[in-house]
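How a chain folds remains the central question behind the approach discussed here. The record that follows shows the chain in one-letter code together with its fold in token form:
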Amino acid sequence: MSSHFHHVPVLLAESADHLHLKPGAVVLDGTVGGGGHAETILDRTSPDGLLVGLDLDSEALAASAARLARFGERVHLVQASFRHLDTAVRELGLGQLDGVLLDLGVSSYQLDAPGRGFRFAEAQHVETPLDMRMDPSQGPSAADLLSRASADELQGWFQRYGELPGSKRLAQAITRCRAESPLRTTADLLRVIEEAGIGRGRRHNPATLVFQALRIAVNDELAALQEGLEMAISVLKPGGRLVVISYHSLEDRIVKQSFRSAARGCICPPRQPVCTCGRGPSLELDNRRPVGPTAEEEGQNPRSRSARLRAAKRISEAA
């Protein structure tokens, strides 16, 4: 299966440049995927730089292991979420790191593999299970959530994670339909979306937002991102770089707010005349506005179109 794991790394040169890679650097790739970014990191930190690659997907790790085999003991791959990256660093006996990269979202392989259930391919959706788990061996699938979540919970997911018009109507339609027959495949869910009249007259398929919302809920992605950013800052040495590539506004908003909060430091109320929290800034922002793909990259890889890169440098809080 790993031989079929294909993922074109997005903003490859830009992410490598913002990481300020040097020989001997120790860098963590929290979403190693097929190893595209990791390979460039290892090339640029040769001859003795180290890479820690995390991923929840065992197939991604197998693909990375094959792709990065030529680097030998310079590579440490761990099946884990980046929300626990501090644990991985500690268990490997590493000190503070020179860089952390988080390339969020879903890989091309995961999107295109029917059995993963991340999207609705018209030719295959009848057989495509509603799974959507990054780690298929852990936790409830999308079908499990759809079978037991209340209408209020479903509506909340569709509103918060998909910003979907008609969220309440779709949630109610799902609870009615599942009383007669469980929703097990993407075809089942698409039928309910159509019957509920969600997105009629809109240019984009509303199922895209529904699937995004379910995927985020299944994998607890936004909470994991918030925790992962905090952990990433904590393991960086002063001068270390944090680079994050996001693919939709919910992710980018969390990254932007987390970066700005860390760059500000103080969390006292704005009108309080004297700081009492004692927190200093821990990040210095590289870019106020996110970096997007070039027209050339978008032409070669349309899925890069929504990518946004933010970067920052770790500074001592006492600085």
Remarks:
- Residues 249-264 form the longest helix (16 residues).
- The mean pLDDT is 90.
